[in-house]
Amino acid sequence: MGLRVIVTGASGMVGEGVMFECLQRPEVEQVLVVGRRACGTVHPKLKEILIPDLFDLSQIRSQLAGYDACYFCLGTSSIGMKEADYRRVTYDLTLNFARTLVEESPAMTFCYISGAGTDSSEHGRLMWARVKGKTENDLAALPFKAVFLFRPGFIQATPGLHNTLTLYRYLRWLVPILRLFARSMICSLREIGDAMLAVTLHGYPQRILEVKDIVHAAASIAPN
Predict the structure, then answer these.
(1) Distance separating alpha carbons of residues 220 and 185, to the nearest angstrom
(2) What are residue 109's DSSP bridge partners?
(3) What gap in Å lies between CA 127 and CA 34, rounded to an integer?
(4) Angle between helices 93-104 and 127-140 (to 10 degrees)
(5) C-alpha dist (Å) from residue 86 to 80, 130, 137, 204, 208
(6) Cα(136)–Cα(131) distance, rounded to whole angstroms?
(7) Strand, helix or coil at 64?
(8) String of b and e for 92-104 (b: at least 16 CB within 10 Å)?
(9) What tens digit of pLDDT does each residue of 131-178 get?
(10) Residue 7: beta bridge partners?
């Protein structure tokens, strides 16, 4: 039996990239996408649940049971947002989803897309970093089989996907420069997806994966 995984945020850049990698890998038997909008992908391994309010999972919670992993890629930029609003869509939404999952599938591995610079102390000057730090810390306290917190920096998009952010399209020329001079700042969507599968299958020595850890974990299951 292969892995059965849940992916959120598949109508966004990172979630779509992670979903795409999961669908390609023979280790994965089924991908369940949960979101407010259709992901726009059709695949024999793919199942999708659309739900208008991700704060209310009562109607679908039984369908979340029996999965091996959740790759939580849902998120938003903090630009222009007040802290209370950003906390609601970052902390409250994520923890509500995770707490439901841990009741239905406590034996799963939960992987969360955070970000480079996240503040684990929860007391730094940057609002987004404090909120992400609080989210990470409280996720880590939940009784899943394992929780891994991914902190990518600049992300190299996967060619051909639909939801690549405009900024990343414009900055494609930076990728070879960063790969050459600032490798600790860049990883690819493919590496993020592969790293999530790797930690699900084999674990990882630490809970927080910075860019170098994402690249290292991904390489451990990269196809020959």
Answers:
(1) 20
(2) 69, 146
(3) 28
(4) 10
(5) 9, 11, 17, 30, 22
(6) 9
(7) helix
(8) ebbeebbebbbeb
(9) 999 999 999 999 999 999 999 988 888 777 776 655 555 566 566 666
(10) 33, 71
Give the closest residue to 136 by CA, choosing from 126, 123, 146, 150: 150
Phi, psi of 104 (to 5 degrees): -90, -35
Distance between alpha carbon 23 and the CA centroid of its chain, in Å? 15
Angstrom distance (rounded) from CA 86 to CA 76: 8
Record the pTM: 0.92
Q: Which segment of 9-13, 68-72, 79-83, 169-173 scores lowest on mean pLDDT?
A: 169-173
Instruction: For residues 7 and 16, give the distance between their C-alpha atoms in angstroms, rounded to a whole number.
Output: 9
How far apart are the C-alpha atoms of 63 and 204, rounded to whole Å?
A: 28
Q: Which two tokens stand for residue 87?
A: 């906390």
Q: How far apart are CA 73 and CA 220, in angstroms?
A: 22
- Tell me the C-alpha distance between 90 and 83, whole Å: 10
Cα–Cα dist 57/40, whole Å:
22
CA distance 57 to 92: 13
CB 193 within 8 A of CB 18: yes
